[in-house]
Amino acid sequence: MVTRRNFLKTAALASAGMAVSGVNAMPAGSYNRVAGAAKKVNIAYIGIGNRGEQIINDFAKTKMVNVVALCDIDMGAKHTQKVIGMYPKAKQFKDFREMFDKMKNEIDAVTVATPDFSHFPICMMAMAYGKHVYVEKPMARTFLEAELMMKAARKYPNVVTQVGNQGHSEANYFQFKAWQDAGIIKDVTAVTAHMNNPRRWHGWDVNIYKYPEAQPIPSTLDWFNWHCAAPYHEYNEKYHYGEWRSWYDFGMGALGDWGAHILDTVHEFLDLGLPYEVNPVKLTGHNDYFFPTDSTILFRFGPRGEMPACDVTWYDGVNNVPPLPDGYGESAMDANIPASSVGEIVKQKINPGKIIYGKDLIFKGASHGSTLSIIPEAKAKEMQSKLPEVPKSPSNHFENFLLACQGLEKTRSPFEIHGPLSQVFSLGVMAQRLNRKLYFDSRTNQITNDKFANAMLTGIPPRKGWEDFYIV
Question: Where do the Gfo/Idh/MocA-like oxidoreductase bacterial type C-terminal domain residues begin and end (predicted)?
Answer without folding.
Answer: 213-271
